User: Which sequence fits this backbone?
């Protein structure tokens, strides 16, 4: 099992920036991909971005150009840099990790990080 500690987030005005962090511990050798998701009130949890062990990234189409995912292998930490934030980016953001070829996460879902963007 992998344990995750999410941090960052908060409240910001539209146009501002925030950076989220997610540190993994435990069976980190099993991690192939690290992903960020978000869930707005009354909506499903959606993929925001992901990054694989070799650095390949993926983004939700609507977020390309504003959000950047990166990782620090030495710290087993994934980051989500969010720029030009919009009120519709308001959501609880979650991270999770996956083994190669798996669809189920290797860690339990945490409480997430609240991100609030005001207009």
Assistant:
């Amino acid at each position: 099992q992998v344990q995750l500690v999410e941090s960052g987030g908060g409240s910001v005005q539209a146009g501002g920036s925030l950076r989220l962090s997610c540190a993994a511990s435990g069976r980190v050798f099993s991690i192939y991909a690290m992903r960020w998701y978000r869930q707005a009130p009354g909506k499903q949890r959606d993929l925001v971005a992901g990054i694989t062990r070799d650095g390949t990234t993926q983004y939700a189409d609507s977020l390309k150009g504003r959000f950047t995912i990166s990782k620090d292998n030495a710290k087993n930490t994934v980051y989500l840099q969010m720029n030009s934030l919009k009120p519709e980016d308001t959501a609880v953001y979650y991270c999770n990790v996956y083994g190669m070829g798996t669809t189920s996460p290797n860690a339990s879902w945490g409480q997430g990080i609240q991100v609030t963007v005001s207009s």
